[in-house]
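Example 5.3 — Squalene synthase HpnC
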Amino acid sequence: MSIKTKNKLNAAALVSGKGHQDENFPVASFLINPEYRPIIMAFYQFARQADDVADNVIASKKDRLAILEDMRSSLTGESQSEPNAVVLRQTLITHGLDHTIVHGLDLLEAFRRDVSVNRYENWDALMDYCRYSASPVGRFVLDVHKESRNLWPMNDALCTALQVINHLQDCGKDYRMMNRIYIPSDIMEAVGATAGDLGRFHASLPLRQAIETAALKTKSLLKRSSGFSAAIHDKRLGVEVAVIQRLAESLTECLTKHDPLSERVHHNKAETLGLAFVAAAGRLFS
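Solution (predicted structure tokens):
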């Protein structure tokens, strides 16, 4: 049943049911200091709900943008209409982290773009989107841990890589369900791939070439973030970042070899645990 406030949809009406355990990469895992987990989970719940709003295929564009605006005003304290945004604001104020609200506001900019934009002309345009959709997540976690903002460039590279990996994994679903294509248009056009290729059950050769090109660019991002884990002061966070880096490297390699339209390009639990163990050990004993 849809939930409305004064005859207007709110974010709770558009929840997907997806939770932090359904994400491709760890979210506030047991590796994170228990002191920080509730703060990070409050941020996650806010981001998850905003993402659900942006990706909803039933609500109108006008309604989705209105809900995202309500989330913004609730986060800044101008209103109390969206509970998850209010909870996040109160959590941050309680912990002396109200200056990090900017990261939530940046995420909302990305979700507004998701409602209004369904194509990206080139890699630079996609990177600008990721500046708002991906980088703020890691920046927030670093700020919660009181890490140096000098780490932001490596954080941004890793978070952007994770975002592009997700785009490539879900490229068929995003096109079929939302007519949204994140693979840059110039990369598609350069190899003769078309939007229609994304609607097939198997990727065409041109589409495979476009995906591989994007994956190779993602590898370059991961090279830039390779020293991120070791530079983090908090050892528990450093281990988590090492695990995420290793999982991302493995998935990127998979995307250069496998067809995400017809093959599994996600890790199962055994693969995830194996990669995580190696990465964690490397960080702990480095």
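Remark. Residues 31-116 form one domain.
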